[in-house]
């Protein structure tokens, strides 16, 4: 925790997303793939959103994608975001297809954020038990 910043409320893994959060702790961005129809999905769910099959496997995503949608908040809306604003909250369209929601953009000025901006995952080890996937503008190759 950084001094002067409020402690953010952290995810509490459940049976559906436990594997995803364990992957985050290893700095692996896991998405689900239906073993019957091949559809890839995020957020983790017990059944396929396309064919309702429960036959699921996890695959490691590249961590690359682009900004699908975003908003930048300058308002703390209470004590929780004190020290964290401005904060960009966004949906990332992963290179593998699924939309990853919700996450934050870092290392980018709010005025520079654009829909379609290439981004890459970075890992924020916020506690011994929780690592959050965040994104930054992708480095040019
Ligand atoms: Zn399916």
Describe the structure.
This protein is mainly beta and 141 residues long. The radius of gyration is 16 Å and the shape is globular. The chain contains one helix and eight strands; from the N terminus they run αββββββββ. The protein has one helix spanning 18-25, and strands spanning 30-34, 40-41, 56-60, 64-73, 87-94, 99-105, 118-125, 131-137. The strands form two sheets. A five-stranded antiparallel sheet has the order 6-5-4-7-8. A three-stranded antiparallel sheet has the order 2-1-3. Helix content is 6%, strand content 37%. The protein has a single domain, classed as OB fold (Dihydrolipoamide Acetyltransferase, E2P), CATH 2.40.50.
Give me the number of helical elements. Answer: 1
In the CATH scheme, the class would be Mainly Beta
Q: Please tell me what the overall shape is.
A: globular
Query: In which order are the strands of the major sheet placed?
Result: 6-5-4-7-8
Point out poorly predicted stretches: none
What is Rg? 16 Å
Specify the structural class: mainly beta
- Can you summarize the main beta sheet? 5 strands, antiparallel
Helix-residue proportion? under 10%
List the secondary-structure elements in sequence, H or E.
Answer: HEEEEEEEE
Mean pLDDT: 93
Which hetero compounds are present in the coordinates?
zinc ion
Query: What is the strand tally?
Result: 8
Assembly context of the chains: single chain
């Amino acid at each position: 925790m950084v001094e002067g910043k409020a402690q953010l409320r952290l995810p509490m893994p459940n049976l559906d997303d436990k594997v995803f959060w364990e992957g985050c702790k290893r700095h692996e961005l896991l998405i689900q793939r239906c073993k019957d129809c091949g559809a890839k999905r995020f957020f983790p769910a017990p059944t396929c959103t396309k064919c309702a099959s429960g036959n699921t496997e996890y695959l490691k995503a590249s961590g690359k994608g682009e900004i699908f949608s975003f908003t930048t908040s300058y308002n703390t809306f209470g004590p929780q975001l004190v020290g964290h604003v401005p904060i960009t909250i966004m949906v990332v369209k992963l290179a593998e297809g699924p939309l990853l929601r919700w996450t934050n953009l870092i290392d980018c000025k709010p005025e520079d954020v654009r829909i379609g901006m290439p981004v890459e995952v970075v890992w924020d080890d916020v506690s011994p038990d929780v690592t959050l996937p965040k994104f930054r503008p992708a480095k040019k190759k």
